[in-house]
Structures are given as C-alpha cells and as structure tokens.
Fold each of these.
Amino acid sequence: MSLGTQPLRWYRLATWSAPGKVFLFGEHAVVYGKPGIAMAIKPRVMVTVRKAKRQKKPNSTYIAECFRQMGVSGSVYVRSQLPSSSGLGSSAAVTVATLFAINDEFEIGKSADELALIAHTVEKNVQNGRASATDTYVSTVGGMVLITGNTKRRLPPPQIQLVIGNSLTHHSTSGMVARVADLKKTRPQIADPIIEAIAAVTKCSMHHFNNPRELGNLMNMNHALLEALGVGHPQLSRLVLAARAAGALGAKMTGAGGGGCMFALCSKSAKTRVAGAIEACEARAIITGIDTQGVRKEKDE
Ligand code: PMV
C-alpha cells in the first residue's frame, strides 16, 4: 500500500527539542522565594512521542509524570546532548520537550503558558514538592530569565562566553535540596544569612551584565556561598580553581551541586585555555553560549 494515499497523520511523529541551562546566580536560594537567574545554553534534548494503546513504563520518572499529567498513553524516544543529573537542566529539558511533543502528537491544544506550568508541576511532583520554576521556564522560553517566587521575567540576553566543566560526578537535585532544607531547620542562624547573601549577590549581578569582570567576581562569591551552604564537591572546587587560574573572569558550580557541572565566564581569547585546564582535571569541557530559543518543534518524522 502506498503511504502517499493516506492522510499524513497516519505516520507522522512529533519531535520537539528544548535547551539545557546554567544557573548564573541564586540556585537553592530561589527555592525559598529569593531571585534566581538562569540562561539557556546550546546543548539540547530531542524527544519524539508516539501514541500507544497502553502506557509502557518509561525509564524516566519525569516522562511517566508527563503522560500522567496529560492523561494519555504513549512512548518516547529521547536523544540528549546534555549529561543527565549534572546541573545543566536535562530533566527539565526532557520534561518540557515531552509535554510539547505530547500536546502536538495528541492534538491536545494547550497553550505554551499552560504547558510551562504543567512542566513545573511535573518537576515538583518528582522532586518531593521542592522545585523552583527556573529550569522548566528557561527551557520553555530560552534566553536569560529571572525567577522570584511565582514571578518569571525574561531579561535581555547577555553576550557572554561560557566554558562548562562536567566533573563527571552525578548529583541528586532532590538530595541536595533536602540537605539545604535540613541545614535551614537545624542551623537557621547560619543557613538563613547565607541564603540572604546569595540573594544579595543575585540582585547585584543584575547591574553588571555589561561588566564581565565584576560579573565574574560575583560568580566567585556565589560559589563560595554555595560551598558554605554545604553543596560543594571536591572535584567542582578543583575545576573552579583550575578555570580561574587559566584566566577565567569567574567560575562557579551550576544547579544543585554535590557533583555535576561548573561553568566559567571567559573572554574570547581565554576560553580554549580554560577548556584545556578543565580537561586536564579529568573532566569534560563544553564551550557554549546563550540559546535565545526555547522549546521548538524539530520535525514530523
Ligand atoms: O541541579 P539542577 O539543574 O536540577 O538545579 C537545581 C536548582 C535548585 O535551585 C537547587 C533547585 C530548584 O528547583 O531551583
């Protein structure tokens, strides 16, 4: 039988992609209503969804929760340029791309805003109720975003060069978020001022996106405060110090910490040297920049 005689819907599959992110400032503090700034980066996750009569158990709890929230059954095929569990927002990118692909494949008709809200709900449900909207929002809209509580805003995209260092040690976002919650409960007199100081650094950074040297200093402060909060990791510290020694303007971990990735702010001329210094520490370097596009349809397969 020639497919040419059949309506296209018979064999097309919806493929959507969504970008990863780095947390420029404010991770962990953002969970407590303080400001957080994140930027979408070039590596992406691609998700293809197809209908199925019965829901096959997906490997990812995020994908299973996406199907549950959308009330349909299907299967997915994921291709990722992002390392998972590393602070680059791969779970959020998978969640966002999956929801948009389901919406398309099943012709559900939800708006982008509705899907972004569902993406945040999926993350909260999988992460024991504690997840800011940062990762899912930046992956949906791209560019640079500021999140404060329930307020989400796009900021003008900065022209900055980043080198990401993947420490190749995995982390658990929910585990790290729980660790900070625990410190806040047992030692509020220590944890609360650190969280306030992170918020002050984030607010200050907003005046310095055209001043890479000052932005770098603020990144270094944010990194030190995250270490004081107990979410550091020896290999992340090593990469941060190596990047600074190789000429980075600033360097910090990104995301929940306890492993995963760091990134360095670099001048154009320093980025190859910084990437080399990171790779010399048994880590993987990715030279990248901002992705101003958020979730997008790739093609019908
Ligand atoms: O490690 P990631 O990429 O999942 O980022 C977590 C960021 C936190 O602020 C620690 C949690 C959150 O939900 O914002």
Note: Residues 1-10 have pLDDT under 50 and may be disordered.
Amino acid sequence: MQNPIFSAHGVTKVYHAGEIEVFALRGVDLELYEGEIAVLLGPSGSGKSTLLNIMGGLDCATAGEVHFRDQDLTTFSERQFTRFRRDHVGFVFQFYNLIPSLTAWENVALVTEISSNPMKPEEALEMVGLKDRLTHFPAQLSGGEQQRVAIARAIAKRPEVMLCDEPTGALDSKTGILVLRLLVDLKNQLGKTILIITHNVAIADVADRVIHLRSGEIVSVNTNEHPTPPEDITW
Ligand code: ADP
C-alpha cells in the first residue's frame, strides 16, 4: 500500500476576471505518493499550474480540500503557508527565476539561510554537477545550467516534495534530458516525491504515473510499470 503525501479532494478553483468567472479546476481528486514521479499532462489552459500552485501553497482553492500528510492546507493562515512552503516544498519553474545580480552560490544561499536543516549551497550545487560554477552569475550560465542552479536551490532545503512547472519547457531536448535525469536521480537516490507539469507527451514516459488534465478535470491516471530512462526518450 503506497502512502499518499498529498491528497486533494474536490478541488475547485474559480478565477474572476472582471465579470467573467474562469473555472480553472472543476472538482479535482488526486493523490501523490511518497517517492514517486508523477507527470501532470494537459494542453495549455487545462489547469496544471493552478493545481501545482494550490498543492504548493502558492494559491488557495475556491472549494475542496488539500491535505499534506495530516495537515489540511485549506485551513492554513498566511504564516502557516509560508512555513509549509519553506520546510516541505521545492519549486522549479520553466524560466528558472534566479536573481540576476547574485551568483549561483548566492542564489542557493538565499534559500538555505532561511531553512531549518539545509545543505550547504556548494553541496547542493555539486549534486547538480555545478561545483565549478559557484561564482558564475545567471547570465554567464547556459539555460540548462541555470535550471540546474534552480534545482540546487530547491533541493538545498531538503524538501520532501519537488513541484516542477514545465522544468524543461525552455530547454532544447538534449539539455532537457539532462534535467530530467537529475530529477529521476533525486527520486532514486534521495526518495523525493516529484510532480512534473508538462504539455510534452514524450516526457510522460519517465513517470511512475501520468495524470491527464483537460479543462480543469482529471480525465485519466495511468500507472507506468516500466518508466523509460530519460536518455531513451525522444522529443
Ligand atoms: P495550464 O497550466 O494548464 O496552462 P493554468 O492553470 O495556468 O493552466 O490556467 C487554467 C485556466 O485558468 C486558464 O483558462 C487560465 O487562463 C486561467 N487562469 C489562470 N490563472 C488566472 C488568474 N490569475 N486570473 C484569471 N484566470 C486565470
């Protein structure tokens, strides 16, 4: 029996754009299990980022419940959300979100300084293969290297969960495969639970489970008994 680390029930999100109501999520039920890689697949606008943001405590559901272990996120105060994000979740975004005026080491240190049990920034950067780039600024790094700094920043605080929104979306396929390899290694070596958003069907092959979202609803969840190594996928 697998242990759910996250469970969402009836999660609905309605955005108000002037007079118009946009139903980004329509009653989503989803569990995320410890130590799995789940890929959330769906066309643009299907609600993927909204769901990831709600699970990560960056946004609130309009209705429904989201549990992280035995805690109900929907009852959290701002202060509890801040602590939850700081202690439990590592985020990786498509465009890296590094601070341009800080070096790779400083970008990671920014997070480790406020974490309770962090790695040293150089340790996290070594894990992503960047121990020779500590003093480089983002502009002096390739896209793939910048994304690896972002992953180092996410893992440095030792989160149980990594929430990755289109982590390879801005990368060429060769570099994207390196980044996927890193995420698979984090699962295999450190037992992280990883949720990856993509609209790229090929990436789904590396997942243990593939969740299809369309128009704010989960249309299918497929278990992949034999995930493909990132090196063997083509896109
Ligand atoms: P995806 O990540 O699958 O591309 P999103 O979760 O970003 O989809 O968006 C789902 C829907 O919600 C889209 O129709 C989008 O336009 C709408 N939406 C997302 N964020 C907002 C917002 N802050 N205000 C209004 N509508 C939003």
Note: The two ends are 34 Å apart (CA to CA).
Amino acid sequence: MSRHTPVMTVMVAAARKAARGLQRDFGEVENLQVSMKGPGDFVSAADKKAEKVLFEELSKARPGYGFLMEEGGVVEGADKSHRWIIDPLDGTTNFLHGIPHFAISIGLERDGQMVAGVVYNPITDELYLAEKGQGAFLNDRRLRVAVRRELTSSVIGCGIPHIGRPGHETFIKEERAVMLNTSGLRRMGAASLDLAYVAAGRFDGFWEAALAPWDMAAGIVLVREAGGTVSSIEGRDDMISSGGIIVGNEMIHAQLSKVLKAARNG
Ligand code: IPD
Ligand code: CA
Ligand code: CA
C-alpha cells in the first residue's frame, strides 16, 4: 500500500515474514490432532519461532528500539522512547485446535503512548494496520467503527476466563447483564482480532479483563484510528497497565461501560 510510512513498511514486512512459518505450522497442527502426543509442544515451538523472526526483523530495521514480547519478555533498547510490544501468536488455543482464527500482533509504543499497530491473520490474509493520525486499514480499505447507537442492537465481543485465570465470578455477572442488553455476544479467542473487528465495524464493542499488554497494544491504535473510544474497565486510560479494556463507538462504549459497572456492583 502506497500510504505506508517507513515504520509501517517495517512492521508489515516483519509480520508477513513471521506469518509464513505459522501458515506452514498450522497445516501440520491438523495432522497432530490425532497423534498420541498431541500438538502442544509443536505449537509452543511455532510460537517461539514466529517471535524470533519478529525480533530479528524489527531489530535489524530499527536497532536500539526496546521490546516487550510474550515469550522473550523485556529486552531493553538503547533508544528509551521506543518499544515494540509483540504477541507472535494471539489465539494459541484456536491454533492448537486447528481453528483458523489467530494473529500476529505488533504494537509500537513511543514515550508511553501506543502509536502504531499491525494485526495479521495469516490464514485469512487479513492485515489490519493503523498509525496515529494516519487512520486504520484492513488491507487497502479504510476502517471506521460501526455507527449503531444502541447496545440492544449491537454485537459485542468478549473474553471468557478459563481454568487458571482470574475473574470467573465477575465475568458471569457481566455476561448476564450484557446478554440481556445486546443482539449477540461473541467469544472468538484472539483479543487482538477482537479489537481489529471493532475497528472494522464487525463488532460494535468488546470488553475483556486480565489481558496482557501484547494482547491489546496494536488493537488500541486500530480502534482509535477507526474513530472508536478505548478505556480500561474503570474508564481510565491505563488499559496496558490495568489489563482491562472496553471499546466501541462513543455511544456503545458508554452504554457497555455502564452495564458492566452496574453488573460488577450488583
Ligand atoms: C489470549 C487470547 C484470548 C484472550 C486471552 C489471551 P494467547 O492470548 O487473546 O482471546 O481471552 O486472555 O491470553 O494466549 O492466545 O496469546
Ligand atoms: Ca495473546
Ligand atoms: Ca500468544
């Protein structure tokens, strides 16, 4: 796409390169479902390989930038104002089960603010990208959040905590309240894509608690650049540090926030 700034060109190239390995490995996972050993170790190797490709490509193109990666953790850079926040495989459970809904997520933080994001689903070849002030795109198409004004006619994405995760009781309260007030709830299993779906107007809103920075870093820029409103569960700007996020157009964000708050306090 001709609109790409130099840094976006770098991010897209890194995502596409890492995606090639994931595409190959995803094909193999389907065979491993029926093997005695199962695909577990294979998937975690695929995840690490993808992260290595991203790390190498981004370090080569922007030496000095720091990293926060799901697998490799923090790598300090000489340049203290820039940091890549990376999830090499968001939607691991889907990948493991042969469900073609997962993504590579790359966010760029500058002086504590998210300024660019790429979310790429290598199976559907959907590449979502956004840069602060430049708009959000799905491949070549400009994205805008949906314009629905009522939560009751909205489709809302969410994340459901599973075994080993906190917040089960809170989620059940929230789910009960939201389901009574929407046209449909979806749990797709890859937070980066959930946020991209809100940017693309497919979901009217989304919320999830207890996320990691790499699950939402890129998606925050996508939603904002598509004209959406983003906050933490408490309505603040501390999504990355609090781990909670609520997104939607301004009206849906407000209604969803209100319903969730009432549910938690009820
Ligand atoms: C997970 C996905 C999922 C969300 C979880 C995340 P992973 O990331 O984004 O949608 O509900 O909280 O941990 O483990 O597949 O990279
Ligand atoms: Ca993730
Ligand atoms: Ca992951």
Note: DSSP finds eight helices and 13 strands in the chain.
